[in-house]
Amino acid sequence: MSTKPLIVITGASSGFGAKTAQLFNSKGFPLLLLARRTEKIKELPLNFDNVLIENVDVTNKEELQKAITKAEAIHGPTDLLVNNAGIMLLGNILDQDEEEWQKMLQTNVIGVLNGMKAVLGHMIERNHGTIINVSSIAGFKAFLDHAAYAASKFGVHGLTETIRQEVADSHVRVSLISPGAAETELLTHVTNEQSFNDYVSWKESMGGLTLDPQKVAESIFFIYEMPQEVTIREISIAATKQQA
Ligand code: NDP
């Protein structure tokens, strides 16, 4: 058993979550890594000695709670939860299938609330613990074709700041990271061809210099490594060439 505390990361199978998992793993933290495609987590370049991997859909609060309880029985209480799992499905309000709205709101908002609820009670009891929610620049400003995604990420901003205030007196930290466009699998799930192409053209306007996911992982680590009495409330981070 590691002497370091347990870190839980949702959406660890690709993108920011995978990079964050690798960074904390390289520093010797025991990890609980969650996603639906667990086979992808198993392919990451990790030292698997203190790594638990569970197939969890964050919209299923029982599944999520069960995985966390199992990891805590081995490694002790969760000291950091990175609520990173999310999806972005772009489209114009008139064309986008409402099921895509539901999927985003369920995953990006209810998934984050499920994660917070699963760990907050014990964190408050211990007067210790940190939650970092991954939002987006689309969580505080609008972009065309992002209506339901923006609704979900503005939601993450609202719930994070509310809960931060609610638990501040317990010395539990709640933080937000809002990245700009980065090269991950996020865009690959977009079904609307026009929205997909517009996003790709927009990214190309950055001359291939979109945000490196590694920098998001490093920012998450930076928030965590501050002393417990210091909360970085929010980091907004994007490629220098991202104008909007
Ligand atoms: P990826 O698509 O590369 O990663 C998303 C991760 O979320 C995957 O590991 C995926 O795993 C997981 N996930 C999605 N839905 C669920 C679910 N229902 N249950 C469990 N896990 C789920 O994208 P990113 O790394 O870019 O995205 C990470 C976060 O960053 C998201 O919240 C996204 O909105 C946000 N973000 C991304 C930006 C970007 O440009 N890339 C910019 C701003 C914010 P699996 O499919 O295996 O379940």
TrEMBL record:
PANTHER family recorded: DEHYDROGENASE/REDUCTASE SDR FAMILY MEMBER 11, DEHYDROGENASE_REDUCTASE SDR FAMILY MEMBER 11
Record-linked PROSITE patterns: ADH_SHORT
Pfam families: adh_short
Keyword field contains Magnesium: no
Entry keyword Iron: no
Family: Belongs to the short-chain dehydrogenases/reductases (SDR) family.
Native source species: Vagococcus fluvialis bH819
Any one GO molecular-function label of the UniProt entry: oxidoreductase activity, acting on the CH-OH group of donors, NAD or NADP as acceptor
CDD domains assigned to the protein according to its UniProt record, in alphabetical order: SDR_c
Superkingdom in the source lineage: Bacteria
Full protein name: Short-chain dehydrogenase/reductase SDR
InterPro entries (alphabetical): NAD(P)-bd_dom_sf, Sc_DH/Rdtase_CS, SDR_fam
Keywords: Oxidoreductase
